[in-house]
Amino acid sequence: MRHIKLTIEYEGTAYAGWQVQPNGLTVQEVVEGALAQMLGMPTKLRSSGRTDAGVHARGMVACFNTEKALPLRAFREGLNTHLPPDIAVREACEVPLAFNPRSDASSKHYRYSILLDPLRSPLARHVAWRIGAKLDLGAMRAAAAHFVGEHDFNAFRASNCAAKTTVRTIYSVDLVREGSWLHIDVNGNGFLKNMVRVMVGTLVEVGLGKRPPEDVAHLLVARDRQVSGQTAPPHGLCLMRVFYPEDSLS
């Protein structure tokens, strides 16, 4: 039996998220369908996590088992011939049978993109949250610093989040300005449902002067979702990469 690890890129606009569900077409469903076509049998994927409807990925990790003696390039080039233009396998490699793409992950990198432009951009409409007002990036960076470390992020998750614990560790939150684009890069050991989007929504409120930077520290202690910021739109969010210890991959 072989255990194949795929790194998948997708533009999530047309999908109801990553994970298979009854209320819409999902990325997982499409990739599993392509695998079934290529391998001639139903094949289930285990992934590093999930993304919501409209969220994108450059580095979603998913694994499956197969007894097919195909070269690794077939799991990339071959699968891509069966996938639509908005989904692609970027990498395929063989990993130990014990490898678990979710529990073995050491950290994840999410990027949220904001377009700072008073005029709408048709080309950016699916990949960035457009904000026409000026943002105070200094205040946003001061607020973002409060997220770093181990905290209870109960105030920064969706009301229907089913996670058993709300404690997570954030390693870094960086704001990168590139012309009219603002990228918010968040690295952590794990994330709750909508966590990055609520963090970004809160930072934007700081940038607009609607709350002071130190408010983030108070929200982490209060643990009350009702008083934290708005949930930023899904289309600005992208899962960039999932990191694993080297010994789990060999």
Keywords:
ten-stranded mixed beta sheet, 250 residues, Alpha-Beta Plaits, RNA binding, alpha+beta, tRNA pseudouridine synthase A
Characterization of this structure:
By secondary structure, this protein is α+β, with helices and mostly antiparallel strands. 18% of the residues lie in helices and 30% in strands. The chain has 5 helices and 10 strands, in the order E-H-E-E-H-E-E-E-H-E-E-E-H-H-E. Helix 3 packs across helix 4 (195-207). The chain is globular and about 60 Å long. Homodimer. Its EC number is 5.4.99.12. Formation of pseudouridine at positions 38, 39 and 40 in the anticodon stem and loop of transfer RNAs.
CATH class of the largest domain: Alpha Beta
- The dominant shape is globular
Number of helical elements: 5
Total domain units = 2
Nearest-integer average pLDDT: 97
At CATH's second level, what is the architecture of the largest domain?
2-Layer Sandwich
Largest sheet: 10 strands, mixed
CATH superfamily caption of the largest domain: Pseudouridine synthase I, catalytic domain, C-terminal subdomain
Helix content: 10-25%
Portion in beta strands? 25-35%
How far do the termini sit from each other?
16 Å
Give the SSE string.
Answer: EHEEHEEEHEEEHHE
CATH topology of the largest domain: Alpha-Beta Plaits
| Unreliable sequence segments | none
Q: Round the Cα radius of gyration to an integer and report it.
A: 19 Å
Function: Formation of pseudouridine at positions 38, 39 and 40 in the anticodon stem and loop of transfer RNAs.
Enzyme class: isomerase
EC number: 5.4.99.12
Protein name: tRNA pseudouridine synthase A
